């Protein structure tokens, strides 16, 4: 029988998932782009003043895509507005549940707390974790015990039984206060009992430079449709 040390050597993702996948993302030559188009109506959300801005960095030396003039130094907003897009009260309640789950995962990620929102039959599509609420709780409990982990929830959209969240996972595998984080789009499916039964995600390390000054997270458009 393969012991734990042998299993970890065989698959380092099991030893330190966040660090392992962060390094894998940094080495990737190309990253997938997720395109999502949803027609929703805004009903309100958590409001905090958005103050972060990117700054031009003329002396910066981007490590990739220099031909695209990626000369803006990337900054991660620490004060921001969480935009919630829903069409009815049920959607608003599900959006609140999503935000609460993220809060629990960094403040009190016990299996009991996670099971309040995540089904025991939870189907996991992220390659970092097995099925069920237990592995999810264990992953974030490990981070919360070692680092000042935080999950910035920038947007939540709910359409029927599906919810999508645009978030930034910060300090999950480092105590560096300058950690830029891992940008993520999480997709959830709610079951008949109101709990989350299925999850998909796409992840990208937040790069140091950008070809535009808009940041990866802020919603800047102020015209119709806001």
Tags for this entry?
Nuclear Transport Factor 2, Chain: A, six-stranded mixed sheet, disordered N terminus, globular, 5 helices, alpha+beta
Written description of the protein model:
This protein is 25% helix and 24% strand. The protein has 226 residues and is of the alpha+beta class. The strands form 2 sheets. A 6-stranded mixed sheet has the order 3-5-6-7-8-4. A hairpin with a 5-residue loop joins β7 and β8.
Provide a quick synopsis of the model.
This protein is of the alpha+beta class. The chain is 25% helix and 24% strand.
Order of helices and strands: HHEEEHHEHEEEEE
CATH topology: Nuclear Transport Factor 2, Chain: A
> Whole-number average pLDDT?
78
Strand order of the biggest β-sheet: 3-5-6-7-8-4
How widely separated are the two ends?
57 Å
Q: Largest beta sheet, briefly?
A: 6 strands, mixed
Gross geometry: globular
Helical region count?
5
Uncertain residue segments? 1-9, 28-59
Taking all Cα atoms into account, the compactness measure Rg is 18 Å
Look at the structure and give the CATH class. Alpha Beta
According to DSSP, the number of beta strands is 9
Just name the CATH architecture.
Answer: Roll
- Helical residue percent band: 10-25%
Alpha-beta content class: alpha+beta
Helices, strands, pairings?
Blueprint: H1 4-10, H2 17-27, E1 55-56, E2 72-73, E3 83-85, H3 89-107, H4 111-115, E4 118-124, H5 133-146, E5 150-159, E6 162-170, E7 182-190, E8 196-205, E9 209-210
Parallel strand pairs: 3-5, 4-8
Antiparallel strand pairs: 1-2, 2-9, 5-6, 6-7, 7-8
